[in-house]
Write a structure and sequence with these properties.
Helix content: 55-70%
Strand order of the largest sheet: 1-2-3-5-4
Number of strands: 5
Oligomer: single chain
Low-confidence stretches: 121-140
Largest sheet: 5 strands, mixed, barrel
Order of helices and strands: HHHHHHHHEEEEE
């Protein structure tokens, strides 16, 4: 039961950062996490603070994977918060493992259905006149399989790429997970309005 509530909290975070349903995902995460800590019972705010800080650092690491330390510290804080709440390291790992497996399944489903970090990237990237002039249907018609481009943002797995002398920014999805900014990529598939790329 506890692991399911924790899993719903993580799923809410995934929905918030991968889909346009930011408020719904955040609401699900907040309610599920609050229910988890209420169900387990905690006498102080410290475990909740540690858990929240850890989760925020992990989310930060998703957006800036090159940073590295944020994710590690986030995992340590998250586990510490859960352990201080439960008091049993074995149950802590079981609850966390169950929630991670459930969340991973949901993330895979969302990615297969075209959702990615591109929704959030639009808030992070500094949008310029090039991106404002993009027309998705026209873009996809002039991009072909095996075309080479350069990642102008990290692909996590989504991001922006330029092709050749065309200054326009194209939304793409990496088939190889994270690809660093400045990496040369090759178009792997063009399907409808979706461009997938891989490292050269």
């Amino acid at each position: 039961m506890e692991g399911l509530l924790l899993g719903l909290g993580f799923i809410g975070v995934a929905i918030a950062i991968l889909t346009p349903y930011l408020k719904s995902g955040a609401g699900l995460a907040l309610i599920s996490t609050a229910a988890y800590f209420h169900f387990i019972g905690t006498e102080t705010w410290l475990p909740i603070v540690l858990f929240t800080a850890g989760l925020l650092l992990i989310v930060f690491e998703i957006f800036i994977p090159e940073f590295g330390a944020a994710g590690i510290i986030g995992i340590v804080l998250l586990i510490s918060g859960l352990y201080l709440t439960i008091g049993d390291f074995g149950q802590t790992i079981r609850d966390l493992s169950l929630s991670v497996v459930i969340t991973a399944g949901v993330i895979i489903y969302l990615i297969k259905n075209g959702y990615s970090l591109s929704n959030v990237n639009k808030l992070i990237l500094q949008t310029n006149m090039q991106s404002s002039n993009n027309n998705s249907k026209v873009e996809k018609e002039i991009i072909h399989v095996d075309d080479e481009g350069v990642a102008v943002t990290p692909l996590r797995p989504s991001g922006k790429v330029t092709f050749g002398d065309d200054p326009a920014l194209y939304d793409v999805l990496s088939t190889e997970g994270h690809i660093s900014k400045g990496t040369t990529v090759i178009v792997d598939k063009v399907k409808g309005t979706k461009i997938t790329v891989r490292k050269k």
